[in-house]
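Entry 14. Ran structure prediction on the chain below.
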Amino acid sequence: MRYIDIGIIVLYLIGITWFGARFKESQKSLKDYFLGGRNTPWWAIGFSIVSAETSTLTVIGTPALSFHGNFGFLQVVMGYLLARIVISSLFLPHYFRGELFTAYELMQRRFGMRLRRLTAGTFLLLRALAEGVRVFAISIVISIVLGTGEIASIVVIVCLTLFYTFEGGMTAVIWTDVVQMFLYVGGALVSLFVILQQIPGGWQEVWTAAAAAGKLQVFDFRMDWSWEFFARQYSFWAGVLGGCFLTTASHGTEQLMVQRLLSAKNEGEARKAMFASWGVIFFQFTLFLVIGLILWKYYGNTGQQEPKPADRIYPQFIWNALPVGVSGLVTAAILAAAMSNLSAALNALASTTVMDFYKLKYGDREESHYLRLAKWATVVWGLVLFGIGVLSRQVNSVLEAGLGIASILYGALLGVFLLGVLTKRVSERAAMVGMLAGIVVNLYIKFGTPVAWTWYVLIGTAVTGGVGLLASALIDGKKEEPA
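Output, structure tokens:
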């Protein structure tokens, strides 16, 4: 046992749990618990968005992509910027009209109660499945460090994160996100420089070898209409379009991200947080891809057998090859990314459960009743995510599995939200038909075709919107007019 490294990790886990729980006293109402009182500065929200967008999937999954491939994933990240432009112009003005707690209240305002419940229920399913894979990703790191079983590893992180989320609500989520983001980015920078020191010739040697092997390629402009074209995950067209639609759906329609935007003081502050977060996201994805490239050269030089599955390459190298103290710091940084994302998911799942289902049914009751219910809903979702994490141990790539699961449902969510903000006469029934059609088509594409996950959201959005408009013409007997 490397007691210094273990000590650093334990101190981090205790410290961040204590820090998050300190916000308990400020939780007086649902607005405090779910929206941080709407007085959080934009830069903190921006960093929190980065933390939620990153997760352990990014930290351990991204280096594996460049280790076995190239820098093509950056094409997806470029699509993230286009998505922020769309969200800022289409969705933010609607979210800041009135006092919204969840994204799905907008669906009730535009369509009706049934569609609000359908979109909220879709989010609960989507986030629970995707977050379950992320919870499993945490266990990969813990099991390497402590030598514990994967299930025991999941229990440790879920319990600690659940404790401070239960106590501190959204305020604890955002401010622990800020601390954790600086920790895992700093840890990645430290690991990058330490790994470079172990390669004769340093960065110049890595660059030369990577260029010769074609691993520095970013863009793939090849285009045809074959199955092979749609099966390539990281072509320019799949990356930019897929990244744009994926992020428009995740940041514009999913409570996990919308809740952060609603925590801003006003629409302008939310917009600044959105665009500032992209610069950090681009930097950190590039950073983790570079780390994967350096690890590729390191394993090539030493002739060591690379770990299996690929997601173990980075965390296992950190623990086995970095100097004592440094490995503890970087491992704690990876856990920081895990805990920040898990805490956000727990709070978002709880807010949707309480606001879009329970309160919608039982109406006005005492604020203390709903606040107490919100905390226990957080506990219940913690148990659900633990269960899904245990069942997710068979996936090959945690990054692509998480994004793939989410993308199946994102298309339907984005399609129905676009129907809501871009049309005036599509009815609730027509929108629901379109949404269900989008989900069915994406399920078929996922399990019945070789089409890559980067296309799922675009296809689901197009099907949902198209079927919704057609159903409106047939069911409502009215021709659709633009808003």
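The chain has a mean pLDDT of 81. Will compare against last week's run tomorrow.
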